[in-house]
Design goal:
Helix content: under 10%
Strand content: over 45%
Order of helices and strands: EEEEEEEEEEEE
CATH class: Mainly Beta
Number of helices: 0
Structural class: mainly beta
Largest sheet: 8 strands, antiparallel
CATH topology: Jelly Rolls
Number of strands: 12
Radius of gyration: 14 Å
Distance between the termini: 44 Å
Shape: globular
CATH architecture: Sandwich
CATH superfamily: Jelly Rolls
Length: 129
């Protein structure tokens, strides 16, 4: 067992923007260093902010803490997600997620294994309502 305390050596403590892999304003706060191939981040999306297309080697769990937004699997229509929703994305499932236009969204993302990043989500792929 490992216990990670805030501001402890080795535990990231500063918010980082995800500009290289996101569209709009997106902030990530690492909860702990990547351990046993598990990365946990709190991610804040300003209205309209979203990730690029990506996939996770062993899957990802999203826990929406506040606000509302979208999750979209490649080839499927986007689905609205809201405070309290939990979303499991299967290994190697290409997807994106982010806030809707009229709301911010905060979620905790638990990513397992390597993340492979792809292209930006186009305005045509992002829901307007």
């Amino acid at each position: 067992m490992q216990v990670f305390h805030a501001r402890q050596e080795g535990v990231p403590s500063e918010s980082r923007t995800g500009s290289a892999t996101c569209t709009g304003t997106v902030w990530g706060d690492p909860i702990m260093p990547t351990t046993d191939n598990v990365t946990i981040n709190n991610v804040f999306f300003a209205p309209g902010g979203r990730t690029h297309w990506h996939q996770h080697e062993q899957g990802q769990m999203l826990n929406v803490i506040a606000g509302s937004g979208w999750i979209c699997l490649d080839g499927k229509p986007p689905q609205r997600i809201r405070t309290g929703d939990m979303v499991w994305i299967a290994p190697h499932e290409r997807h994106w997620h982010g806030a809707e236009q009229g709301s911010y969204m905060l979620h905790t993302a638990t990513s397992i294994g390597k993340t492979d990043w792809g292209s930006a989500v186009t305005d045509d792929q992002y829901p307007k309502a």
